[in-house]
Design a protein that fits this description.
This protein is mainly beta. It contains two helices and 18 strands. The protein is 3% helix and 42% strand.
Length: 261
């Protein structure tokens, strides 16, 4: 599961997703004690599913203190339209999934505010909408509402029989899709490697600032700063075996694997 947003100030809510969908974790009792960040991959989170006014809500029941194990985002959002968002039966079938919308316009102007629901227009259809629900952690509060067509992504959540797209962070509005670098965007060669490992990206949208290498047990064995996406790893001193390579832009991260021979 990938952590895509954290709000410690409001019920310790956590956005997580896997290859099938996304969901909000409600943790008012603070069972999750790990120091998690957006982009962390976690496993072994236990809880119960309850019905909260028609919304399936996951509540953590056992203390979770495990560290993140790797970091990348490989979830493809379900593309929906403004018209789809008004179809309660259709959206019920995709409750809590990661969704995206393309070429939509906000009907409101000004700046985003906490807890506000917004209406959208797309291809002549107007309806709800977007809900700035994550109370300051989304990186949107106080930011200007886009004045023209934009792309959105976020979690599909119901409130009083209406579905809303809930942005997970500031990158989910206005930057196009996909919002995160994926493992498929990273090329490492030669692999297996004997001495020098070269790393290239298939996209210019992600600016790497830090690189780290972990062994197969998750132990950090190498870390360095990166400039201008010029990335290489001196693997000559590494023991033979499998390693994880983590790239970060300071906010989001991606992890891939390589083998030292």
């Amino acid at each position: 599961m990938i952590v895509t947003g954290i709000n410690n100030s409001y019920r310790h809510q956590i956005f997580i997703q896997d290859a099938t969908g996304a969901i909000v974790i409600d943790d008012p009792n603070g069972k999750v004690v790990s120091a998690l960040e957006a982009g962390d991959e976690i496993t072994g989170l236990y809880g119960t599913l309850t019905d909260y006014y028609g919304l399936l809500q996951f509540a953590v029941t056992e203390e979770f203190s495990a560290p993140a194990i790797s970091i990348y985002n490989d979830v493809t959002p379900l593309t929906v339209t403004v018209a789809d968002m008004q179809d309660i039966d259709y959206m019920n079938a995709h409750q809590c999934e990661l969704i995206s919308m393309e070429g939509v316009s906000f009907n409101e102007t000004g700046t985003f505010t906490n807890g506000t629901k917004y209406t959208l227009t797309q291809n002549g259809v107007t309806g709800t909408g977007v809900w700035i629900h994550f109370y300051n952690v989304a990186g949107l509060t106080g930011e200007a509402i886009p004045s023209g067509p934009t792309n959105l992504s976020g979690v599909n959540k119901i409130s009083y029989s209406q579905y809303y797209l809930i942005p997970r962070n500031g990158a989910d509005i206005g930057t196009g899709l996909p919002q995160y670098l994926t493992e498929n965007d990273v090329v490492v060669y030669p692999n297996p490697v004997a001495d020098q490992l070269t790393v290239t990206l298939r996209t210019d949208a992600f600016r790497v600032s830090d690189m780290a290498v972990y062994d197969f047990n998750g132990k950090l064995v190498m870390a360095q700063s990166v400039e201008d996406n010029q990335i290489s790893v001196n693997a000559s001193r590494l023991a033979a075996g499998s390693y994880f390579l983590r790239l970060s832009d300071g906010k989001n991260s991606v992890t891939t694997k390589f083998v030292k021979r």
